[in-house]
C-alpha cells in the first residue's frame, strides 16, 4: 500500500512538473533542434516560406531558406529571392535621413516645416513637429482610412511622394481629414506609431538632399554596401519576388505583388544577405563593407531609449525588441508578409527573419534564433 501511494505521488509530481514547464524552460542546443523548432513554427503558423540569417559582424553564422516562394508553382525558396520587408523598411528610411543629420544639414529638434515645401501642423495645436518627433513616433500624425486606397497591384505608385503627402497632410487636399489623419495630442506629448510620419521622413530626405528618395538610397546606402538585391520599385526588379499569402478559412490566399503611395514606410524588397550588409553597420559603429553608413554616435543614439517617460522601447526609429537579450531592431507586417530583424550591440550578433504570410508572430522565433546564434 505504501509503495502504491509513493508511486502515485511520484506520478503526480512528474505530471505537475511537466505541466509547469513553459517556453522559458525551452532550450535549443544544436542545429537539428533549431531546425526542428523552425519547421514546427512554420507548420503551426502556416508559413509558406521563411528566410533565416544569423550573423556576427561580417560573418554569417547560419542561413536557411525553407519552404515555397510560390505555392501555385511549387517553387522552392532560394537565397536570391526577394521578400517585401514591410516596416523593416522604416529603418532604411530613417538611416537615409540620419545620414543627412550626420552631414550637419539639420538638427533633430528643428521644425520640419523649415525644410518642407508645405507646412504640416497638428489641428488645434501650435507646437511644431520636429525631426526627433518623427523619429520617435511622437509627431501626432496618424494613419487615416484613405491609406486603404493607396495600394498599387502589379505596378509602382502613379503619383509622387510629395503630391500624396501634401494632399494627405495639408487642409484642402483630396486625402486630408483633420480627425483621421492626426491624433488629438500635442506633438511630443504622446507616443503613437505612425506610418505616415515615416513616409514624411522619406520626403524630407528628398527635400534636404535635392535627390529623389529612391535614387538617394541607391547612391548612399544600397550601392556602397553592395546591396544589389534591394529595391523600392517593382519596375527595377528582374529576379524572383516571393509571393505574398494570407491564410484564411483554412487555405492560402495569394496576393498580387504591390506597392503603395507612401512606400518609404514599408515598400522595400530585399534578401536576408543584403539586410545583413545593412544591419551589420549597427553592430560595427556604423561601418559595413568598408563604408561608414552612419556615425558611431548616431548608431548609438538609434539604439538608446529616447522617450522613456512616454515609451520604454523607443529609440530613434529602432525599438528595444527584447530587453532580456538587449535586442534592438524592427518588425514588419503587411498584406501577405511578416518580417523581423534585430541585433545586440555587445555580442555583435544579429538575426533576420523574413516570411510570406501576413498573420504571423515572429517575436519568439527572433529570440530563439538569437539565442541559437550565441551557441554558434
Structure description:
It is a single chain. With 376 residues, this protein is α+β, with helices and mostly antiparallel strands. It has one domain: DD-peptidase/beta-lactamase superfamily (Beta-lactamase), CATH 3.40.710. The protein contains ten helices and 15 strands. The strands form five sheets. Strands 3-2-1-15-14-13-12 form a seven-stranded antiparallel beta sheet, with helices on both faces. Strands 4-9 form a two-stranded antiparallel ribbon. Strands 5-8 form a two-stranded antiparallel sheet. α2 runs antiparallel to α10 (363-374) and α3 runs parallel beside α6 (195-209). The longest helix is centred in the first third of the chain and has 19 residues, at 2-20. The chain is globular and about 60 Å long. Residues 1-23 have low confidence and may be disordered.
Amino acid at each position: 500500500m505504501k509503495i502504491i501511494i509513493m508511486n502515485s505521488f511520484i506520478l503526480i509530481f512528474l505530471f505537475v512538473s511537466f505541466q509547469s514547464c513553459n517556453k522559458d524552460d525551452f532550450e535549443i542546443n544544436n542545429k537539428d533542434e533549431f531546425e526542428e523548432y523552425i519547421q514546427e513554427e512554420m507548420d503551426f503558423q502556416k508559413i509558406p516560406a521563411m528566410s533565416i540569417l544569423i550573423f556576427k559582424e561580417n560573418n554569417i553564422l547560419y542561413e536557411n531558406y525553407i519552404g515555397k516562394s510560390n505555392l501555385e508553382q511549387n517553387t522552392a525558396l532560394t537565397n536570391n529571392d526577394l521578400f517585401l520587408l514591410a516596416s523593416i523598411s522604416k529603418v532604411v528610411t530613417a538611416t537615409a535621413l540620419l545620414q543627412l543629420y550626420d552631414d550637419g544639414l539639420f538638427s533633430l529638434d528643428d521644425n520640419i516645416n523649415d525644410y518642407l515645401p508645405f507646412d504640416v501642423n497638428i489641428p488645434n495645436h501650435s507646437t511644431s513637429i520636429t525631426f526627433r518627433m518623427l523619429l520617435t513616433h511622437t509627431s501626432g500624425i496618424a494613419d487615416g482610412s484613405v491609406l486603404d486606397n493607396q495600394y498599387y497591384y502589379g505596378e509602382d505608385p502613379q503619383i509622387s511622394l510629395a503630391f500624396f503627402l501634401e494632399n494627405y497632410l495639408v487642409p484642402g487636399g483630396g486625402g486630408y481629414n483633420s480627425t483621421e489623419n492626426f491624433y488629438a495630442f500635442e506633438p511630443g506629448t504622446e507616443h503613437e506609431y505612425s506610418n505616415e510620419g515615416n513616409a514624411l521622413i522619406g520626403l524630407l530626405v528628398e527635400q534636404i538632399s535635392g535627390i529623389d528618395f529612391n535614387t538617394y538610397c541607391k547612391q548612399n546606402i544600397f550601392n556602397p554596401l553592395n546591396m544589389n538585391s534591394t529595391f523600392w520599385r517593382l519596375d527595377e526588379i528582374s529576379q524572383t519576388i516571393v509571393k505574398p499569402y494570407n491564410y484564411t478559412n483554412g487555405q492560402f490566399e495569394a496576393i498580387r505583388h504591390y506597392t503603395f503611395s507612401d512606400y518609404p514606410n514599408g515598400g522595400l524588397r530585399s534578401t536576408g544577405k543584403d539586410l545583413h550588409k545593412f544591419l551589420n553597420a549597427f553592430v560595427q559603429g556604423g561601418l559595413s563593407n568598408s563604408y561608414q553608413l552612419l556615425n558611431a554616435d548616431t548608431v548609438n543614439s538609434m539604439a538608446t531609449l529616447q522617450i522613456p517617460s512616454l515609451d520604454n522601447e523607443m529609440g530613434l526609429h529602432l525599438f528595444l525588441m527584447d530587453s532580456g537579450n538587449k535586442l534592438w531592431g524592427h518588425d514588419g507586417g503587411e498584406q501577405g508578409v511578416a518580417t523581423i530583424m534585430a541585433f545586440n550591440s555587445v555580442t555583435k550578433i544579429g538575426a533576420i527573419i523574413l516570411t510570406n504570410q501576413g498573420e504571423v508572430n515572429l517575436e519568439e522565433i527572433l529570440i530563439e534564433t538569437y539565442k541559437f546564434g550565441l551557441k554558434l
